[in-house]
Amino acid sequence: MSDKRVLLHHARLIDGRGGAPIADAAVLIEGTKLQWVGQSSSLPTETEGVPRVDLGGRTVCPGFIDTHVHLALPGQEGSPAQGIFEAPSYRMLKILHRLRATLENGVTTARDLMGLDAGFRQAVAERKIPGPRLLVAVAMLSQRAGHADFTVAGGIDALATVVALPGSPGNLVNSVDEMRSRVRDLVAAGADCIKLASSGGVTSPHDQPEWLGLRPEMITAAVEEADAYGGIPVAVHAIGRPGIEAAVNAGVSSIEHGYALDDELRARMVERGQFLVPTLLETVHDLDPKHSSPAAYEKGVRWHRIAQEAIGRSVAAGVKVAMGTDSGLTISHGNNLKELELLVRFGGMTPMEAITAATGNAAELCGIADVTGTLEAGKAADIVITDVDPLTDIAALGEPAHIHAVIKDGHLAVDRADLFGDHGLPPLCP
């Protein structure tokens, strides 16, 4: 491991904790960690002689965290159904491009909520492939005729065929005992979190978002098992009210989507400290009518509008929000930071609150706040450098041209502005 020391200076710093930005800030990187962060006027004397990189007044933010992605899905690059005609190895290789695009556009940590296994996490951690730090759910669990059931009339399980990797635990469970067993399978497979679907969905063929897609006793069993294995977070796809209520009452860590939240359920979430991951970016990209059924298209249009109208009330009620995009479903990978502007536009957040949702809050939800999410001494050197002031133009942060550099674990992932030249940080993947 490199112990190279580099001082970034002449920067404007947003540290991910929600406080005012620091003008004329400096960040000292040593190896993979942040050694010192603060105002340049307070630099310790031991930084004298350390190689310096002048950022020219650019803004420095923590590496962003997307808590809801699907890197095994293609987004607008094609239809998932293409996977029927592709070898699993080819499908896996396409994921490498998506990992790189996600990282280079500002996301240094991503939580994949169905599709990737622990092998991808290990390969990224060992810097064998470029990508954001990964947390994986491996599979998404629901009962038969729930959101995880994509079995078509001919008997083919499309989810298992075109998304799941060979050897991954199955997605369908139909009893409390099966749920307990499947959660244990996922723990053994290295899952960082458990993903359930307690309501129907937009794209799934057998259900409606209003329906309860997983019985409450099965959700409770999953939460109990996850808690018994070190308190693994439980993330739940829940769109309609019955599914949201069942998940909230079971004590899950996060409600993913949460479109039909009402004031009663919001109050329960606030009381219990449960997170909402609203995935607004997915709602501004309706399904492609060419690649979806008329029923799925109509479901999407209706529920996307409900989502956009509901998020502001959730924010106003004090529900904790973490950024997630559902990247891969209807949007292509690498556009993750466009979610920030939507949290401001639909959610009524300030730009600083949106940034915190994608940094400090997201790290807390994922259980990695001691590792990343804020720019503090001792944490991973995960940094995004941009030429825009995101507090006055949050939308611009979603454009790759404004992401001038991305640093992950003290290694340079991309340097679009040639800030570091030959004397800066080591490359992420030699």
What do these coordinates show?
With 430 residues, the protein is of the alpha/beta class. It is 29% helix and 19% strand. It is built from twelve helices and 17 strands. It has helices spanning 88-104, 118-125, 158-162, 176-188, 216-228, 241-250, 263-272, 280-283, 294-316, 338-345, 351-357, 360-366; strands spanning 5-13, 22-30, 33-39, 52-54, 59-62, 64-69, 107-112, 133-136, 140-141, 194-197, 234-238, 254-257, 275-277, 320-321, 383-386, 403-408, 411-415. Strands 1, 2, 3, 4, 5, 15, 16 and 17 form an eight-stranded mixed sheet that branches. Strands 9-10-11-12-13-14 form a six-stranded parallel sheet, sandwiched between helices. Strands 6-7-8 form a three-stranded parallel sheet, sandwiched between helices. The longest helix is centred in the C-terminal third of the chain and has 23 residues, at 294-316. The radius of gyration is 21 Å and the shape is globular. The mean pLDDT is 93.
Brief write-up:
29% of the residues lie in helices and 19% in strands. With 430 residues, the protein is of the alpha/beta class. It is globular, with a radius of gyration of 21 Å.
Topology:
Layout lengths: L4 E9 L8 E9 L2 E7 L12 E3 L4 E4 L1 E6 L18 H17 L2 E6 L5 H8 L7 E4 L3 E2 L16 H5 L13 H13 L5 E4 L18 H13 L5 E5 L2 H10 L3 E4 L5 H10 L2 E3 L2 H4 L10 H23 L3 E2 L16 H8 L5 H7 L2 H7 L16 E4 L16 E6 L2 E5 L15
Parallel strand pairs: 1-4, 1-5, 6-7, 7-8, 9-10, 10-11, 11-12, 12-13, 13-14
Antiparallel strand pairs: 1-2, 2-3, 5-15, 15-16, 16-17
